[in-house]
Sequence to fold (189 residues):
Amino acid sequence: MSALRKTVRVLSRRALRSIVTLHGSSEAIALGTAIGVFVAFTPTVGFQMLIGAFLATLVGANRPAAMIPAWITNPFTIAPIFTATYWLGKFFWPGPSVGEVYHRLLVAAQGLARLSFYELHKQLIEILRLGEEVFVPMSIGGVIVGSLCGVIAYPLTLRAVRGSRARLTARRQRRAMRIAARKGRNPAD
Fold:
């Protein structure tokens, strides 16, 4: 397995673990994650965490859960994700060729990879520089892909959070039983 794949796998596990261990109801966490996944596919890089938190606040979802998926689009994934959303959006709005847009996004992403955390707003400006003929189809495709992925993320996150909490409860009960058995008492007493 390549080092990049291994890094992506580790980061994905950490992100999932950070989501399932959040405080709040399972439904609020799942809704927040769905909102965050939706926003991650929109060409609003640099503002995705803020948009996710704002939308989560509006609907009563978990704000941190809405902010974590914003990192789906990062300097390594921005070119392929936004090219795919552009390709889909191009069915609804005319624009330049997909190859040309991919090349422009790749060049922009390479420059963006060197930015500091506090300069993320420059990513959105770079996307906007691509122009209306690219931004509009990319937005349309992003809304379609983001909606689909958000709808899929909700039940998966809900199941993961509930499962994680059930395992934690069972582990705590087993531990209480072991402690009680050592003391010679019945834990139900």
In short: Residues 28 and 60 are 7 Å apart (CA to CA). The chain has a mean pLDDT of 83. DSSP finds eight helices and no strands in the chain.
